[in-house]
Amino acid sequence: MASYKNVLVFGELLDKKLASITTELLGCSRKLADQLKEEVCCLLCGDVVGDLAKEAIAFGADKVYVVEDPRLKEYVADRYIQVAEKVVKELSPRVVLMGQTAIGRELAPRLAFRLGTTVTTDCLDLNIDPQTKLLLQTKPVYGGNALAVFTSESMPQMATVRSKAMSPLARDPSRRGEIIKTKADIDESKVKTTVLQTVKEEAVGVKLEDAPVIVTGGRGMGGPEPFKTILKELADLLHGAVGASRPPADNGWVPESLHIGLTGKIVAPDLYIAVAVSGASQHMAGCSGSKHIVAINKDPDANIFKEAEFGVVGRYEEVLPAFISKLKELLAE
Amino acid sequence: MPLNMIVCCKQVPDPEAPPSAFKVVNNTMTLPPEIKPVIGQYEEFALEAALRIKDAMGGKITALALGNNFVRDVIKKTLAVGADELILLEDPAFEGGDSWSTANCLAMAIKKIGSYDLIFCGRQSSDWDAGQVGLGIAELLGIPAVTLARKVEVVDGKAKVEQVIPDGYRVVQVALPALITVTSELGALRYASLKGIMAAAKKQPIVWKPKDIGLDPSQVGAAGRRAKLNKLFQPVKEAKCEIIQGENAAEAGAKLAVRLREAKLL
């Protein structure tokens, strides 16, 4: 039986950089590997990886496995899974971490089933049990209404991690590590899916995930109009972005790309202003990492007031215009 | 050739119940009896995806669910909206499973059903939110999978799927048989017609036990788990919200701006 050792991060590249989730995973892996007195390995695949292997080392990796192949330019699960399977089988890592991203939420379960092991998806916290050396995997369940801690009874122990749940290390370009190039070995006969077309539906203005301030409207907004008028005015004033909870997205008031929550975007701005949002657990799962939450809701018993730091009980139609006009005064000072 | 479709469904505690209704007792989630179980929201979208294909080109839909103590009125909604057959893997031994044992049981049941062109699952369950069972079934059956579908059509013997990706979508073509997981953008499940409800009332689900799918009770449910649940808990939240008061809502709004400025948040 192979001995399982080290923590392997499945890295993702985005716009010719390491994706932020990857630097977060490296930071978290460093902590776990240090507890285990083992190494952090990172797999980077794409058509061109280039200097990003050095970046992965600067963010905490000891060894970076680089797989460059023109067929890996675009993410296709049937190809990426083959690369991930090959590298994991060669390395026999104790722990495999992926991001809870479009890629990770697809690859991780497939890889786990292929290897006959388990994966805990969407983890918020990972730790090593000092006695058993097992990975303690904490994830929200029941739509965010509870947290569960899992351990795996099989190897490797796999988890996907929610974005912004972990902190990256400070980039240290002087860190030393090893870069190992390896072949993709893709069997094209196992690729059963073909991407016919890719369509970007990008929102204009500040990207939600990067916005320092987010103004979010909920079911209580009553329709699409206020998202384009009063919420947008407030977001623009604060150089922020407009978001929505699930009902406005489901009702077609806003595009799905504005949906913040368990199955939508996960955001963690400095300031999160929730307007007419009830604060269902599924929504809070997408914004609870915000530094400061402000709630405006006409229902004093709304769950959002249990999550917020500041709140006003009242109809948004009355509260917001006064809030905005005062804000303009204050910003002009 | 009309398609054979299988939709995997799960009976879950109503995820729309207020957060205060969810209470963990002895590492188990409990809900008050007035909160009725429902078919998981994502499985409803999966069923709608299959129904739309049946509308367009005919075919047979088999709804498949695993658990114990199914509320017949809840799970028979699958028949009422247009599924042709309902198979329940129903036994106390099926309780307490994880993604592995659940996917394994469903894959064994699907093998027993035998002929299938498309298998639909929700993107994730509404209770454990793992998002693994569908992909696990595909791996165990050795068939391709496409996740997060918002539209599914069958053209020239292949499925054409609009898959949601960050900031957009892509159109993916996949050979049949294939497994597809469905997300909310596909649209809500249709309402059952009166005729559908009447017809469903007359149909009885087929019930299979572990041995019917070739498994020993020790291989299913809690006994078949590979992931161990160490702890289920609810972090205590301190209500620390500072409510800004005013003569009226407008005044409170203006005061909120002042307060946030003081706190250096604006």
Jot down its keywords:
heterodimer, A: 333 residues, alpha/beta, Rossmann fold, 2 domains, five-stranded parallel β-sheet, 18 strands, elongated, B: 266 residues, nine-stranded mixed β-sheet, globular
Question: Would you give an account of this structure?
Answer:
The complex is a heterodimer of chains A (333) and B (266). With 333 residues, chain A is an alpha/beta fold. Chain A has helices at 20-36, 52-58, 77-91, 104-115, 225-228, 230-237, 246-250, 281-287, 304-307, 316-332; strands at residues 7-10, 13-14, 17-18, 40-46, 63-68, 95-99, 119-123, 125-128, 135-141, 146-152, 157-161, 178-181, 193-200, 213-217, 241-244, 271-275, 292-297, 310-313. Chain A has 2 domains: 7-190, Rossmann fold (3-Layer(aba) Sandwich), CATH 3.40.50; 208-332, TPP-binding domain (Rossmann fold, 3-Layer(aba) Sandwich), CATH 3.40.50.1220. In chain A, helix 9 links the parallel strand 17 (292-297) and strand 18 (310-313). In chain A, helix 6 (230-237) runs parallel beside helix 10 (316-332). Chain A is elongated, with a radius of gyration of 22 Å. In chain B, 27% of the residues lie in helices and 31% in strands. Chain B has 7 helices and 15 strands. In chain B, the strands form 3 sheets. In chain B, strands 11-10-9-12-8-1-6-7-13 form a 9-stranded mixed beta sheet, sandwiched between helices. In chain B, strands 2-5 form a two-stranded antiparallel ribbon. Chain B has a two-stranded antiparallel sheet with strand order 3-4. The chains are: A alpha/beta (333), B alpha/beta (266). Chains A and B meet through helix 4, strand 7, strand 9, strand 10 and strand 13 of A and helix 4, helix 5, strand 9, strand 10 and strand 11 of B.
